[in-house]
Amino acid sequence: MNAPLLAKPVALRIADLGNAIERARIGAFVHDHPEGTPFHLPAWSIAVARGCGQRSHYLVAENAGGDLAGVMPLTEIRSPLFGNVLASAGFGVGGGILTHDPRIVPQLAEAAWTLAGQRKCPVVEVRGGPLPGPEWRVDDTRYLGFVHALAEDDAAQLAAIPRKQRAEVRKALENDLDVATGCNPGDIAAHYAVYAESVRNLGTPVFPRTLFSEVLREFGNSADVLIVRRGGVAVSSVLSLYWNGTVYPYWGGGTREARALRANDRMYFELMRHARTRGCRRFDFGRSKTGTGAASFKKNWGFDPQPLTYYERVAEGAKARDASPVNPKYSLQVRVWSKLPLWIANRAGPLIAKGLG
């Protein structure tokens, strides 16, 4: 009988993301991997670390020849309210271990678990990728992902939207709304004002403004803000990433006036149009919790939900972390937060949200 195959020897270390050559090398590996996402890129790790004051640890595996064989972005998220967690990838909806060799998966997973112990993080969350190992709990029922191909032109895009939602989009296109894209300081300020009001109305704290500005800075031409205005006043806005032929509308929302104006419908249709001009072929509507209004909204656009698989490992004696606003135990806090004056929510929110991850 043949002896069992041994895993190829690899060296594991934390990458120096301050080194431009190291960043470019990792970026090329992520870009060429079929399961790579923007959340695997060094730019994401750097932006969320600067934007939220949390620490990034980017694990890399190298083979005997010094070539990259696997990566695992990790963010150390500390919160006095929700506890400490090591997440892959922090503040993203995707991440996890990225490698072409399945034998490297458990090595990176164990390195992450060891690092979590050293950093006193009793929980490790892995958002996507292969199963890290038998010790990890699998969750494939909580979140849904929504991805769809973009049509070839506006007419085909409208036709691809189910009838009821298509009627809403047509009405939105008839409204007197102005649409513009950019990423200058004025655009960032307008987006943040709209987004902050939107999440306050939903009863959740807003992320620090620096998170948005750092993501735009790190992604450069691969990110922008699309703003819908009525009479010069921003009513809907979305910050999107563009990567490998896919547009990712990541942080979007609208003011209370947006609903009557159908500004959010206009915003997403205009983003589809804009993404096509940038050469995108797919529209990734992001994740939503199963059974929520956000998930229904995306289904109405004709996006078929696909379960997202996440993994979690919790230290003995510790509790799993659940900071989701749909958790029933936070229902009172959500109701109270949605009634706060906006200036209070905008000042207190980032202090809380930077620990959500």
UniProtKB/TrEMBL annotation:
Record-annotated BioF2-like acetyltransferase domain positions: 166-298
Coiled-coil regions listed in the entry: none
Domain of life: Bacteria
Transmembrane segments: none
NCBIfam families on file: pepcterm_femAB (TIGR03019)
Protein name: FemAB-related protein (PEP-CTERM system-associated)
